[in-house]
Amino acid sequence: MLSDVDPEIAALIQAESARQSSKLRMIASENDVSAAVLEATGSVLTNKYSEGYPGKRYYEGQQVVDQVEQLAVDRARALFGVDHANVQPLSGAPANLAVYLAFLSPGDTVMGMSLPMGGHLTHGWNVSATGKWFNAVQYDVRKDTGVVDLDEVRSLALAERPRVIFCGGTAIPRTIDFPAFASIAAEVDAVLVADIAHIAGLVAGGAHPSPVGHAPVITTTTHKTLRGPRGAMILTDAEHARAIDRAVFPGLQGGPHNHTTAAIAVALHEAMQPAFRSYAHAIVANAQALAAALLERGFDLVSGGTDNHLILIDLTSKGIGGKPAARALDQAGIELNYNAVPYDTRKPFDPSGIRLGTPAITTRGLRPEQMPQVAEWIDRAIAAADNGPALDRIAAEVRELLAAL
């Protein structure tokens, strides 16, 4: 037992378990996996090395592992309705790097949403390798609406002629218009890549439109709304499958993490069940109810609300930065992250906003009728950011609610 071998680590894991159970976990990229996913993640499959793909390995002893990976691939194809799935990328960033290796050469032009507007580092932002090794051009959101102006995206694409266009990101509260992006990509002969890391579970559950049929390459993590382990997948049409497979292995990595592959397969199986569809729609219902309650309390929501699992709040009108607000909320039992907002005038490490989401609290069992109470706690905590006892009182109320679930 772990507690016998390494009591320090065992105690820390137990402490983390207690911390998670006693807080409203509202980081938009986090979720709670099932006991089955957790069991697969901690299985003996972690002992096996498996460079290559099913039926084409470089080590012997793959009789079981090949079946595990093929199950994950088949389930991904069936769930999302794609021709091909690669389940080996170790996380979302390596999955996106595989796209660059598959379709670009250093110096080629790539287009994506800029990081401060809600994009991802690997969509060509300047501090990422993708912004240093490639000619990255970036589109923004409108100041007045907080959403992407697709006419401006088209104009930029026509001017810059990128070979790859990314749509999707990390702080986008509105529905992504995949058909419109596909039309732009076709006009400039670019490969459209839909990064659905945040919304994969919503897509799988029918709570967000699918990019399948519009984007020939789709990257995603397997945690977040999909409620699986920390891993990634790349979904493609038949035409782009070989280039992606060669980019993942041997292009970027050696042996896949077989225990993670098994857990991905379990999560995909769970996502195929009718209950998951209800869960995906419940995530959105909770987010929209929470957004409405926050608006009633005078919060400034980027784009005015949400269509998915994520809410981005500009705290400028509240007279507090995102970082001190996030720390106060954590003490109050509400875990989220500080985040830049579009056209932020503050520094990235001390931005104007906070980002929150509903995947984990929906898994925990919270419902739309409880979202006004959550909004009230958020409002109270931000108003009492310098008042430790007041924050502790809110945390006690949060624990009381969670204990009753």
UniProtKB/TrEMBL annotation:
<feature type="domain" description="Serine hydroxymethyltransferase-like">
    <location>
        <begin position="2"/>
        <end position="378"/>
    </location>
</feature>
<dbReference type="GO" id="GO:0035999">
    <property type="term" value="P:tetrahydrofolate interconversion"/>
</dbReference>
<feature type="binding site">
    <location>
        <begin position="119"/>
        <end position="121"/>
    </location>
    <ligand>
        <name>(6S)-5,6,7,8-tetrahydrofolate</name>
    </ligand>
</feature>
<keyword id="KW-0963">Cytoplasm</keyword>
<keyword id="KW-0808">Transferase</keyword>
<feature type="site" description="Plays an important role in substrate specificity">
    <location>
        <position position="223"/>
    </location>
</feature>
<keyword id="KW-0489">Methyltransferase</keyword>
<dbReference type="GO" id="GO:0042803">
    <property type="term" value="F:protein homodimerization activity"/>
</dbReference>
<protein>
    <recommendedName>
        <fullName>Serine hydroxymethyltransferase</fullName>
        <ecNumber>2.1.2.1</ecNumber>
    </recommendedName>
</protein>
<dbReference type="InterPro" id="IPR049943">
    <property type="entry name" value="Ser_HO-MeTrfase-like"/>
</dbReference>
<keyword id="KW-0028">Amino-acid biosynthesis</keyword>
<comment type="subunit">
    <text>Homodimer.</text>
</comment>
<comment type="pathway">
    <text>One-carbon metabolism; tetrahydrofolate interconversion.</text>
</comment>
<dbReference type="GO" id="GO:0032259">
    <property type="term" value="P:methylation"/>
</dbReference>
<dbReference type="GO" id="GO:0019264">
    <property type="term" value="P:glycine biosynthetic process from serine"/>
</dbReference>
<feature type="binding site">
    <location>
        <position position="115"/>
    </location>
    <ligand>
        <name>(6S)-5,6,7,8-tetrahydrofolate</name>
    </ligand>
</feature>
<dbReference type="InterPro" id="IPR015422">
    <property type="entry name" value="PyrdxlP-dep_Trfase_small"/>
</dbReference>
<comment type="similarity">
    <text>Belongs to the SHMT family.</text>
</comment>
<dbReference type="GO" id="GO:0005829">
    <property type="term" value="C:cytosol"/>
</dbReference>
<feature type="modified residue" description="N6-(pyridoxal phosphate)lysine">
    <location>
        <position position="224"/>
    </location>
</feature>
<dbReference type="InterPro" id="IPR015421">
    <property type="entry name" value="PyrdxlP-dep_Trfase_major"/>
</dbReference>
<dbReference type="GO" id="GO:0030170">
    <property type="term" value="F:pyridoxal phosphate binding"/>
</dbReference>
<dbReference type="InterPro" id="IPR015424">
    <property type="entry name" value="PyrdxlP-dep_Trfase"/>
</dbReference>
<keyword id="KW-0554">One-carbon metabolism</keyword>
<dbReference type="InterPro" id="IPR039429">
    <property type="entry name" value="SHMT-like_dom"/>
</dbReference>
<dbReference type="InterPro" id="IPR001085">
    <property type="entry name" value="Ser_HO-MeTrfase"/>
</dbReference>
<dbReference type="Pfam" id="PF00464">
    <property type="entry name" value="SHMT"/>
</dbReference>
<dbReference type="GO" id="GO:0004372">
    <property type="term" value="F:glycine hydroxymethyltransferase activity"/>
</dbReference>
<comment type="pathway">
    <text>Amino-acid biosynthesis; glycine biosynthesis; glycine from L-serine: step 1/1.</text>
</comment>
<comment type="function">
    <text>Catalyzes the reversible interconversion of serine and glycine with tetrahydrofolate (THF) serving as the one-carbon carrier. This reaction serves as the major source of one-carbon groups required for the biosynthesis of purines, thymidylate, methionine, and other important biomolecules. Also exhibits THF-independent aldolase activity toward beta-hydroxyamino acids, producing glycine and aldehydes, via a retro-aldol mechanism. Thus, is able to catalyze the cleavage of L-allo-threonine.</text>
</comment>
<dbReference type="GO" id="GO:0008168">
    <property type="term" value="F:methyltransferase activity"/>
</dbReference>
<keyword id="KW-0663">Pyridoxal phosphate</keyword>
